[in-house]
């Protein structure tokens, strides 16, 4: 069971980097329309969408990905505690 927990933790860690990569693509014009941007959008947007409903953007800055990453890290902590990997 610890192997499953460790794998799940690594996948959640990788997913947080995918979110960061998707955020960084917004800094470059037309980067989200590239094949990598479209792939990241299909993978990350379903997770970010609920956070965008509750965390409104302040001006031009969208804080919902930051909240999503914090929630994902809290979930990682919960998974680590559940599988006894702390």
UniProtKB/TrEMBL annotation:
Name-wise, this protein is YggT family protein
Q: For this UniProt entry, what's an example GO CC term?
A: membrane
| Span of the signal peptide | none
Its family remark reads:
Belongs to the YggT family.
Task: Kindly state which keywords UniProt assigns to this record, in alphabetical order.
Answer: Membrane, Transmembrane, Transmembrane helix
The keyword Transmembrane is assigned to this record: yes
In its keyword annotation, does this UniProt entry include Transmembrane helix?
yes
Could you read off the lineage of the organism from its UniProt record?
Bacteria, Bacillati, Bacillota, Bacilli, Bacillales
Say which species the protein is native to: Halalkalibacter oceani
Residues crossing the lipid bilayer are 7-28, 63-85
InterPro entries documented for this protein: CCB3/YggT
């Amino acid at each position: 069971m610890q192997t499953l927990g460790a794998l799940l933790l690594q996948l959640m860690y990788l997913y947080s980097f995918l979110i960061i990569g998707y955020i960084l693509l917004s800094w470059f014009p037309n980067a989200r329309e590239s094949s990598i941007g479209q792939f990241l959008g299909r993978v990350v947007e379903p997770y970010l969408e609920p956070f965008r409903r509750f965390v409104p953007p302040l001006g031009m800055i969208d804080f919902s990905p930051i909240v999503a990453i914090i929630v994902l890290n809290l979930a990682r902590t919960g998974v680590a505690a559940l599988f006894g990997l702390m």
